[in-house]
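A reminder from the course coordinator: this example appears on the midterm review sheet, so study it carefully.

Given structure:
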């Protein structure tokens, strides 16, 4: 049975037996919006932050029998939570080599979800070390971004080292093709980031191979074209 709003994930959370899951309730709609495309397909998902293992069971249920779910946590007790389709790895989000070692053990990933320690260094380091391991067409989702505003997690309003401020730079990189400033140039994220979506406490980054954009003109002009317009028109 699904809830009236059609959320398979929320139905699992509310109505099915599972280990403990701790989620903000508005997250479920966001998950459905970005993850539905991967259901019942042979995908690989990595979630940082295992806790009691309930969300790993939720992903297993949601994505189906062809999915492989990997969970990463610093707590060695989490290793006990492995089950069919779910593998637990021990790792430290503050340690770049630890994350590199984890990526070396895993196949390319379709989804990376950061629900780990939520500190600024952990969120930045995890993104930087795992982005290359995400497939084209994949989704990177970091949640609980409200910690970016909490000093206890290393955050603070518009502090330059927060993950919120870090991801705002991706907006500039989406538009680097058009920059006339030598400090702003096309780089890896310009060529691999299709979209950045912000929600309350969540950022979703879509990965895709991006080529230099170009414009075309089609149809019969109503008035004589300016030289710049003519050049575009002639290209078809």
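Designed residues:
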């Amino acid at each position: 049975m699904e809830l009236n709003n059609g959320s398979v994930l929320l139905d699992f959370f509310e109505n099915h037996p599972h280990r403990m899951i701790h989620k903000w309730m508005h997250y479920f709609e966001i998950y459905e919006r970005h993850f539905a495309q991967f259901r019942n397909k042979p995908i690989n998902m990595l979630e940082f932050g295992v806790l009691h293992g309930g969300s790993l069971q939720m992903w297993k249920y949601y994505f189906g029998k062809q999915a492989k779910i990997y969970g990463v946590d610093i707590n060695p007790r989490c290793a006990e939570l492995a089950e069919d389709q779910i593998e637990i790895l021990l790792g430290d989000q503050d340690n770049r080599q630890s994350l590199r070692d984890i990526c070396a053990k895993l196949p390319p990933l379709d989804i990376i979800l950061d629900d780990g320690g939520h500190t600024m260094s952990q969120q930045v380091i995890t993104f930087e070390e795992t982005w290359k391991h995400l497939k084209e067409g994949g989704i990177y989702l970091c949640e609980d971004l409200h910690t970016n505003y909490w000093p206890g997690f290393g955050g603070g309003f518009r502090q330059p080292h927060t993950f919120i401020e870090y991801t705002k730079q991706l907006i500039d990189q989406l538009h680097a093709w058009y920059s006339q400033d030598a400090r702003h140039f096309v780089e890896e994220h310009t060529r691999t980031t299709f979209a950045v979506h912000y929600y309350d406490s969540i950022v979703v980054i879509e990965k895709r191979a991006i080529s230099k954009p170009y414009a075309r003109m089609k149809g019969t002009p109503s008035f004589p074209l300016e030289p710049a317009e003519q050049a575009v028109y002639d290209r078809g």
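The chain has a mean pLDDT of 94. The chain has one domain: 8-234.
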